[in-house]
Amino acid sequence: SFVTFTAALKCTAMAARRQSTSKRSIREKVQASLTDSAWDKAIIKATDSDRRTPKLKHVQALLRLSFLQQVPPNELVESLLKRIHSTTSWIPALKGLLVAHHLLRDGHERIAHYLVSRSTHFTLDQFLDQKDPDGHSFSLLVRFYGSYLNTKLAVQRSVGYDVCHAKSGNKTAFFKTDTSTKLNATVNSLQELASNLANILPTLKGHTPHGAPPNSLVPTLTQEQTMQEEIVQHMVKLLFNDALRLFVCQNDAMLNMLGRYFTMNKKDAVANLSLYECFTRQCMSIDELCDLCRQFNLLDGRDIPTLSEAPLTILPTMRDYVENYGKKPESSKPPVVHQTAHKTMSQRSSEVDVIGQSTHLEIPEEDSEA
After folding, report:
1. What pTM was estimated for this model as a whole?
2. What is the chain's mean pLDDT, rounded?
3. Distances from the Cα of 353 to the Cαs of 150, 216, 284, in angstroms?
């Protein structure tokens, strides 16, 4: 049929474009061969114009370098930022952001500390690839990803550490035990990051992002066309891994809060209910992102349960407590539905935490040349 024929032409055209940019450019080869800097060489190779995901060995080389005392973190970071901000092609830009994300998740913490100390990081609000026929759609992803990483650093500055980092485990016990106002402030910061992360969903689906200003870029590709790109798939996997970690921390905080909620005064209950309602919305966004990963086989065999079901079950009872505060006799015993959902939420934290630990990259002892 005509529709099938048209679709086939589009697929052929996209395949041709991928093939035309599927190799490292001569300029990139020359740059990599001339530099004496191990990190410059790895950055050039990891962020080349090849329309495929960065090679694992180059990412691992940069992770390893981040742990070497003789490697100045400022020089490694500045080299990567220069690469990201100097290109007008969405491919090296997005690959550079992927490398930065890996360094923030698995690299030495001094990399993030240096980035946090800078006044500017990944601000790419005006980025636009005008040469690629699909540059508008992919430029939107570059802008989004830069915004997300900026928010990630801002939250780290506020909280004091990155909850998604491979070595954050002991620090996040705070969410299970703290009962001070600091807990709510920290959860609020994590929710800001999770909300920013969820903003990617409309763009991936070919829709204009919510709240986009007039005359802003509009996606020109469908979800299938966008998601068939290896680099985009890599980005989505990293973001989903962050989303799982953000879920565990927030879920632990919500379980902590629920243990006290039905004895709170009305002012505190209203404040905590607002956080909880935001948490349930973000759980639904994570479920949506999980469905997308499942659709394109990006879960790597992981069995991710539905995360929003149990939290949503408790919500009506929590709202009822606020709406009828003082009208009913107080009871220190939580409703049965609350107890059941609480148990399920606790299980989800344990399950997702184990799953999340398997997503961090191992760092080899020695680098290998390409």
Report:
1. 0.88
2. 86
3. 25, 38, 18
